[in-house]
Specification:
- This protein is globular.
- It has a seven-stranded mixed sheet with strand order 1-2-3-4-5-7-6.
- The C terminus is likely disordered.
- It is built from six helices and seven strands, in the order E-H-H-H-E-E-H-E-H-E-H-E-E.
- By secondary structure, it is an alpha+beta fold.
- Pathway: Siderophore biosynthesis; mycobactin biosynthesis.
- Keywords: Acyltransferase, Antibiotic resistance, Transferase.
- This is Lysine N-acyltransferase MbtK.
- InterPro entries: Acyl_CoA_acyltransferase, Acyltransferase_MbtK/IucB-like, GNAT_dom.
């Protein structure tokens, strides 16, 4: 079972280590210095930026990172995503990684995505959908999304995180399931 903790400055050395791993750096083209991690993750950790960075713990061990934001808080991201597909009002987007190399390829990513979507439904009751844009070349990532129950809703050009990638991205989405109406059906009662 996953537990979650907001990323704090104490986690920056771990993020530096994870971002330097070849399986992460291939898709998260990010500087790995403490200064770069502080620059990019610090505002969310301090609550001065609307995005949220969550450490995924499995059996108490850190195994991954999930970022959550609303596209409406980032106009460039909203414009890029909206150019490919409709973005429902209140939707959230996520991004994720599995950090330790020995945890890759074991189905943890799929389970982590599923668990975080459940967390999002609980944390963000007004969110109608969770969306993810993933570079088309990252087959393992979009397969994990599909196994987690997300559907590919569009494909189109977006600027890739890593300049070696083509701009083609797939957009995945899962919608909140409507809560079943628990009131009894009285439309035919007494007839």
């Amino acid at each position: 079972m996953f537990t979650w903790r907001r990323i704090g400055p104490q986690d920056f050395p771990l993020l530096c280590e994870w971002l330097a791993q070849p399986h992460v750096s291939r898709w998260w083209n990010h500087e790995t210095s403490v200064e770069a991690v502080e620059r990019d993750f610090g505002p969310a950790a301090r609550g001065t930026e609307p995005s949220q960075d969550w450490l995924a713990l499995l059996g108490g061990d850190p195994v991954g990172l999930v970022q959550r934001s609303r596209p409406t808080d980032y106009p460039e991201e909203l414009a890029s995503l909206s150019a490919i597909t409709a973005v429902p009002a209140g939707a959230v987007v996520i991004d994720y990684l599995i950090g330790p190399p020995d945890r890759v390829g074991r189905g943890i990513g799929t389970r982590m995505i599923r668990a975080f979507i459940d967390k999002t439904w609980h944390d963000c009751p007004e969110a109608p959908a969770v969306m993810v844009a993933v570079v088309a070349a990252n087959t393992a990532s979009w397969r994990a999304l599909e196994k987690a129950g997300l559907q590919r809703v569009a494909s189109g050009a977006m600027e890739p995180d890593n300049p070696i990638d083509e701009p083609l991205h797939h957009v995945y989405r899962v919608d909140r399931r409507p809560v079943a109406d628990s009131r009894p059906d009285t439309t035919s009662a007494g007839r």
